[in-house]
Design brief:
The complex is a heterodimer of chains A (about 150) and B (about 160).
Chain A lengths: L3 E8 L4 H11 L4 E9 L2 E8 L5 H9 L11 E13 L5 H9 L6 E8 L2 E7 L3 H13 L3 E3 L4
Antiparallel strand pairs in A: 1-3, 1-4, 2-3, 4-6, 4-7, 5-6
Chain B lengths: L3 E8 L4 H10 L10 E10 L7 E9 L4 H11 L15 E14 L4 H11 L6 E8 L2 E7 L5 H10 L3 E2 L2
Antiparallel strand pairs in B: 1-3, 1-4, 2-3, 4-6, 4-7, 5-6
Classes of the chains: A alpha+beta (about 150), B alpha+beta (about 160).
Chain lengths: ~150, ~160
Amino acid sequence: MPHQVVKCSVRGSVGDLAKITAALEANGYNILAIGASEVNHVGMLALIFDPDQDIDAIANTVRGVPLGPGNRQPEDVGTFPDVHILLNDTPGQLRRAAEAVGDINIETIVSIDKMQGKARVSLSFEDEATMAEAVRRLRAAHIQIHDHQH
Amino acid sequence: MPHQVFKATVKGSKGDLAHITAALHAVNGPNNEKVDIRYIAAGESSVVNGIELGVITMILEPDDGPMENLIITAIQNAPLDPAPNGQPRSVQNVSKHPNVQITLLDVPGALNAALAPLSAASLNILTVLPMGSGTGVQSVGLGFDAADETAARQALAGANVIVHP
């Protein structure tokens, strides 16, 4: 089973991210990597966990975080299967991967760390079938796939 | 010199990432420098009025001196595919912000411990990016408005978070 990325949005307020990470900490979930940004007071988060076998429970934890007045909670919470690719640490490598994926919609991208002297990047997709086609295209373009299945 | 974090939005379409990364790859600095995407995070949301909105956040090298404007111009002018109705699309809200790099123990709760003092000080975090890991530690980049950077560094250091200069 592939790993999953948890993605959500918040209608921005200062401190939302801390509330979400506090709830995750309280349940003992380990965040492997996080990407977050805000635009026009809407924040978007992509969270990768290790371990993540309990991904539905993790997503439910995120859904239930009270963010403040008006019963505000994270919205648009979903889980998406991801593939980890290993890219040479030189300019232009992510472009190669993005072009290989082509017209497949990438839900989230998070650069995780360096592994085997290469940059490890998570790409998540709508479902496992879409991810499988993306992996096929990435392999065809000689993009190295990091096997991180359970 | 600390890195900057570059942020941009697209009203979503498949293939936008490839166009943006290609535009960055085409940048040539005054001494033929090429732009390296060191760290990246991006995601889509349909929360804003049902519009599929993508936000991309990157730390790039080199990003100082004349490279800064070259990078911003390249992102702004990335040739995106037209919308389904034929309307032209472009990258929007291209901005840069100070990036504060912190190093955390690789244990559950470490990130929350770093974020709590920022929340207590009402400091708005604009971006969060992983910036690599070492044995037992992880580095994270936090982006702030320029006006908040000093206060953010102070709040983090006051909570005994390792803050990179």
